[in-house]
Here is the input.
Amino acid sequence: MNKRSIYLLSLGHMVTDLNQGAIPAMLPFLVAELDLTYAAAAGVVFATNITSTVVQPIFGHAADRFSNAWLLPMALLLAGFGVAMIGMVDNYHAILCFAGISGVGIAAYHPEAARRVNLSGGEHKAEAMSIFGIGGTLGFASGPLIITTAILWFGLNGSLSVLIPVGLVAVLVLIYLPNPLATTKKSTGHGAKDDGDNWCAFSFLAICVTARSVLFFGLLTFVPLYWVSILGQTKVAGGMALSVMTISGVLGNLVGGRFADRFGNTRIILFGFAMLLGLVPLFLWATNPAAALLVLIPIGFALMATYAPSVVLGQKYLPNHIGFASGVTLGIAVAAGGIAAPFLGRIADIFGLVTVFSGLAILPLVNILITYYLPEPTTQRQL
Here is the structure.
């Protein structure tokens, strides 16, 4: 593996997803400041993810055709700028606009970065992708901590704090990341043959990743609110619970990637969803914050253990379109979870948060059924 490139791309992934993780943690403060409903608050997450969904195919296709040194730093700056401005305005529509700008930056980073990780991973692509995924997990974990602390100290204007890590990492990526045209081949190009692509299997995988994303963003959006409204804890405690869940995903990500290289991607994906099938209902049965927090730890582990195997499996299904495959598994399908957030928020407004979590508990079963029939590629086209 080209570890220098992988670690640098993982650092950029951390900063990118720091912004994505910060937005849900800002929701309780926005609700209190602007008197938003659950559905309106979830709409902020929706704005980020619908924008990411719309532009993701463009960036994924572009990653398969050309690569520019400026793309990743620009993506980082856009993602951070959008989140920074959310706390600077008190107009709901302006908040949605800046959330959308952040979504464009997030969408621009993932396909190109994942394509480079694939090319840098050698024979250990799942392990390389797990390292890349750990960066994202740490970003989701640190995002709530950073933004919650900053807002408590400086009010909503503390959202400007995200510009510091974003700016620093953008400079590092621009200076130290090798020129892709000099160090890698294109994953596809003009005249590439598509007969090695398994579009049918990839389509079912995309459904599986989409269901996983709905579960992930459902937890990401409503765990802080659940902590406050159902368990009667503070907003800070809600942000901390979210961080505990995502931090536990770091270990799950690393273990999932290494075991996928050894035992196969589909087996690890199936194992992760089998764990979640019992853990999500167990979370609802926990009647006190300590017990609920203990259940969130294996939930984060199992959920993130499926991350790297899913991305690498998609890249193996579409060896001629690695950038596009990465854009879907990291972008479109993942963003679908954010798109579902306001609908889940509407259900929460009408029936309560417990009903939302009860619905989320069904999704692991759907993914188990899909994953069971997914083929495990035995070879991959040489790049």
In short: Confidence is low (pLDDT under 50) at residues 181-192, 379-383. The chain has one domain: 3-179+194-372. Residues 149 and 305 are 29 Å apart (CA to CA).
